[in-house]
Structure formats: C-alpha cells, structure tokens
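Q: For a teaching handout, I want to show students what a protein-ligand complex looks like in token form. Below are the inputs, and the small molecule is heme C. Please produce the holo structure.
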Amino acid sequence: MKKNKILFFVLIAAGGFTALQSCGDKRAPGRTYMPDMQYSRAYEAYTPNSLDKEGINYIPQPVEGTIRRGDLLPYKVPNTPEGYVQSAQVKNPLSLPLTSAQMSEAQRLYNINCAICHGAKMDAQGPLATGGKVPAVANLTTKVYVDMPEGTMFHSITYGKGNMGSYASQLTREERWMVVEFVKRTQLGGAAAPAPAAEAATATENK
Ligand code: HEC
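A: Here is the structure, written as tokens, with heme C included.
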C-alpha cells in the first residue's frame, strides 16, 4: 500500500514537471511527436522546405528538367522584349491539321477563356470589351493580328500582354497551341470549327 502511494506521488510530480516544461516558451512551436504521422508525405506538395529540418523529405516542385507524361516540352522563350521578337520563330509543335475533335475542343476553350474579351467572332466585341471593363482589346480580325505569327500569339497568351493576363495556369501548353491554331484557322477564313461534338470531351483526356 505504501509503495503504491509513493508511486502515485512520483507520477503526479513527473506529470506536473512535464506540464510546466511544455508551457515554458509559448512562442516555440514545440517538438512534433512522430512527424511522419503529423505531416502526410504523399499529398503535401509545395510545402516549404523548412520541414527538411524535421527530417521530412518533401519534393516541393517537380524535379528540374522533368515533364509530365504526355506533356509538351517546356516553352523556354523568356518573357522579355527580345523573347517577344524571338517568339515569332516558334512553330506549333502539335501535328497539324488538328482533328475535328481537337478543333471543336479548341473552339470550346476559346469561347470559355477568350471570347469574353475578344468576342465569339474575334472582333473585340466580347462583353468585357464592349462594356468598357477591359480597354484596348485586340481585334483579332484586323491585318496586324492576321499576320501575327502563331509563336507570338502563343507567347502572348502564355505570359499575358497589356490588359490581357497569362493563360499558362488555365490552359496546358497543348491547349494553348490548340487555341492558337483555332484562332489562326478562323482568321484565315477557315470557317470556325464544326459545332462542338460529343467527341470533343475525349480530346482533353491526355492533359
Ligand atoms: C480580359 C480580356 C482578355 C481575355 C479574356 C483575352 N484577351 Fe487576348 N488580348 C486582350 C487585350 C486587352 C489585348 C491587347 C494587348 C496589348 O497589346 O496591349 C489582347 C491581345 C491578344 C493577342 C495579340 C497579342 C500580341 O502579341 O499583340 C492575341 C493573339 C490574343 N489576345 C489572344 C487571346 C486568346 C487566345 C485568349 C484566350 C486564351 C485571350 N486573348 C483572352 C484581352 C483579353
């Protein structure tokens, strides 16, 4: 019985001591018990490298020089005035002409992402342009844009230009090239693509 009492007091004392210790510095985050359980390895991409200190080995960004399976090679021309000039030499890497499914998909993507400013007919009559929300929207039916090389168009929608933002995060490289091809075809009177067909949905599977 006596032994039990002693054990009891020892436990209380130890508990109190631990409690006091953990309240020591309120600003310190404290130590993580079993960090592997605290932070999941698989899904916390883009977590700051500071977790390396905890012995947690994240891969915050894709390894330099790697691309997703099925993806186009990265676009290396820099977002500089020289890069803009250089972009004129860049050719569409997709195999042309696009299939009718790809064209329908490109038209769908154009209508979603571009028509709000450039208009369904590419004549700068989109609601944001006519409503005055976005000034100086390019009329893609005019000569300067009809003559514009596809590479320059790709460059501008990749990095943005003037009042137009970048589409690099909304559209994959492949989709951007498809949209550029759609714009070019339409400009050259190559009649807007056939009405979107059900098959269009399969065209983006390989994103
Ligand atoms: C928010 C409105 C807006 C949207 C949406 C938009 N644009 Fe633009 N776009 C502009 C404006 C404004 C300019 C003129 C930029 C300049 O020269 O200052 C422009 C210019 C362009 C040019 C000419 C670029 C150059 O180098 O002069 C192309 C090509 C173009 N847009 C294509 C697209 C495509 C394709 C999309 C959809 C992926 C798109 N735009 C979406 C507003 C928009």
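A: Two things your students might notice: Confidence is low (pLDDT under 50) at residues 192-207. The longest helix spans residues 2-22.
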